[in-house]
Here is the input.
Amino acid sequence: MSYKNYRIQPSRELHVVVLGAGGVGKSCLTAQFVHNEWIESYDPTIEDSYRTQVQVDGRQVMLEILDTAGTEQFVAMREMYMKTGQGFLLVFSITSSSSMAELEGLRQEIIRIKDDENIPMVIVGNKSDLEETRAVPRAKAFGMSQRWGAPYYETSARTRTNVDEVFVDLCRQLLRKDDDLNLGGDGDDALKVDGFGNIRRSAKKRRRFMHGDRDRCAIL
Ligand SMILES: Nc1nc2c(ncn2[C@@H]2O[C@H](COP(=O)(O)OP(=O)(O)O)[C@@H](O)[C@H]2O)c(=O)[nH]1
Ligand SMILES: [Mg+2]
Here is the structure.
């Protein structure tokens, strides 16, 4: 074996959290992604985490996915998973405007808890197979995507449309953030890791990162 071309590709572990109102399809999306199966009816109170290997741009990552159920008895528990989570899928159903409105509060909470405006996120409009009962116009979701600088996908857990794409996009954002850390400079551009393994970016770098992010537009 030639050592010249041998590169160590450490397996990274990424923690993502699936958030959104009850009934939008968080568990169905997670089951489709992790197990490749459609489950018609999920216990709405089950909150569980899943580990799965994912290949992202030729890199192997171990993804830990927390499928939340909004059943936390203590605010502290919710804060804990928001702290540990490195990236978030914010899911609503295209058949429910209120489920989209709920994402605003969740995003604010994530930003507050992590004290970072640039947490990797993907906005997911699920149940795209139910076009005939759509309640959220695409333009409205696009608007939110632009405002938040987060990509928007419409998915169907039922038909498996865009299911892999949303998880892979989130992993890609996390890897990019991780690469930034490894390349990290010093002084004003320094990146710091807090006690939870989350990356903190200096104000200068944060601004640059945000502007770079404008290129990421909504994808369907
Ligand atoms: N038509 C359709 N129904 C879905 C889809 N995803 C979930 N559902 C249904 O929506 C309901 C709630 O799904 P679930 O994953 O339990 O929602 P959760 O509370 O967000 O975890 C179930 O009856 C699912 O069958 C989808 O993409 N299309
Ligand atoms: Mg569920």
User: Anything to note?
Assistant: Strands lie at 12-20, 48-56, 59-67, 87-93, 121-126, 152-154, 191-193, 199-201. The radius of gyration is 18 Å. Residues 26-27, 42, 44, 67, 69 surround magnesium ion (ligand 2) (CB under 6 Å). The chain has a mean pLDDT of 84.
